[in-house]
Amino acid sequence: MDTMKILHVFPSAFLGGSELCAIESIESLQKMGVENHVILPTNGEVAKRLENLSVSFEIIQNSWWMSSKPWKTFLKVIMLKGFYSSAKSIHKYIKTHSIDVVITHSIVIPSAAIAARLSNVPHVWYLHEYGDLDHQLKFEYGKQFSFKIINKLSRKIIVNSEGLKKYFSEKLSPNKINRLYYAVKYPEFSALMQKPANELALCMVGRIAKGKNQLVALKALNLLKQESIYPRLVFVGGADQEYLNMLQQYIQINNLENQIVFAGQTDQPWDYVIKSHAVLVCSVMEAFGRVTIEAMKAGRMPVVSDTGAGLELIQNHENGFLFDPQNENELAEILKHIWAKTDCSKITVSARKYALEHFSLKTHGRELFKIIEDTL
Rounded to whole angstroms, how far apart are CA atoms 186 and 167? Predict the structure, then answer.
């Protein structure tokens, strides 16, 4: 049998959640003998990771069909021409390299799906997100029309959680949809067994943005301050400037400066995670919650919003804690409980065991390869 050739099309060259998953998918398929090819819209951090894996890539402009700000009609027409132009370039790549299957690694880019149809090659759409509910992006050509295109141009559709599967099964052909958990490659750490009483180091990893809801964490800390409880919180990740400005203003108004650190973007967030006792995931709606699993693998206590995949990954007070992301009082009560704790082992050992058993390159690669095989 000839070596299978798969083309992965990325939404950006920035190392976000979907890009990290795509890189892990490539690495897991590589171990199974697949020849992976990649198309990036620009050069960037992803390119360096691909070079480390000895994976060839090409840069082809690949615009999004979703946006944070509504487009005018004229721009929608111009963008349609751009999508088709990108699709023709990707089509040429598919034919030149005899690609067997194309995978689009996000809901936000349509050109690879069009290219696969032009090339008569099976297309898999890997939906890592809701798009609108989690990232506050707008379907510029309408939600119903966009879903119709996704459904029509996909032989298979992959989602990253049962919650996302349920959501899209009501909008797309259920028989096309496959739930595939991420590998979540992460350094190995021992579970945190003990912490000092009346002390709490918190970490929040991810882009500082409205959808990630860092504000609720600050509000919870402000409530706890009234009870002379002072957890420390480190934010790790890049930022949307407008939202960051609002957070900094809140911190200043409420005199929280001594409790908060903005660490910025890093390739090694675990350096901050392992110095913490608990990791916060406060997203309004999280399709998967990669940071939740990373916290578990690091043997730290995950404190996670009870929306999206949070309910799927966390058993409350067993392998983590759940709270309403719109309710700072609820979060404050959980943090107050953890502040007083000394024995963390029940939560951390259970969390680490669950994550190591369910999320690995081997399992991810095996299940992904089976889905791809079914398209041929």
Answer: 28
Place of tokens 């889905």: 371
Provide the CA 154 distance to its chain's centre, in angstroms. Answer: 21
Q: In one letter, which amino acid is 135?
A: H
Report the relative pairing of strands 66-67 and 138-139 from DSSP bridges. Answer: antiparallel
E-only strand ranges, 291-357: 301-305, 321-323
Whether 306 contacts 328, CB under 8 Å: no
Beta-carbon neighbour count of residue 172 at 10 Å? 20
Burial of 357 (0-12, 13-18, 19+ CB in 10 A): exposed
Dihedral sign from CA coordinates of 24, 27, 28, 29: positive
Handedness of CA 87, 89, 92, 96 (dihedral sign): negative
- Which pair of tokens denotes residue 35? 């020849």
Q: Which residues of 112-130 are buried (b: 16+ CB within 10 A; e: fewer)?
A: bbbbbbbbebbbbbbbbbb
pLDDT at 2: 85
Burial bucket for residue 73 (CB in 10 Å: 0-12, 13-18, 19+): exposed
Closest CA to 161 of 331, 310, 29, 55: 310
How many of the other CB atoms lie within 10 Å of CB of 289? 27
pLDDT, tens digit, 9 for 90 and up, residues 286-300: 999 999 999 999 999
Strands 138-139 and 201-205 come out as unpaired
**Region of 115 on the Ramachandran plot (φ > 0 left; ψ -120 to 50 alpha; else beta):** alpha
Enclosing H/E stretch for 372: helix 361-373
Which two structure tokens, joined as six digits, stand for 71? 């487009």
Nearest to 5 by CA among 79, 81, 116, 125: 116
Q: Which residues in the chain show pLDDT less than 50?
A: none
Q: At 95, is the secondary structure helix, strand, or coil?
A: helix
User: What's the CA gap between 20 and 293, in Å, rounded?
Assistant: 14
Phi-psi region of 308 (alpha: psi -120 to 50; beta: other; left: phi over 0): left
| Pair 172, 194: CB distance under 8 Å | no
Q: If DSSP codes are grouped into helix, strand and coil, which group holds residue 249? A: helix
pTM (two decimals)? 0.93
**242-267 per-position pLDDT tens digit:** 999 999 999 999 999 999 999 999 98
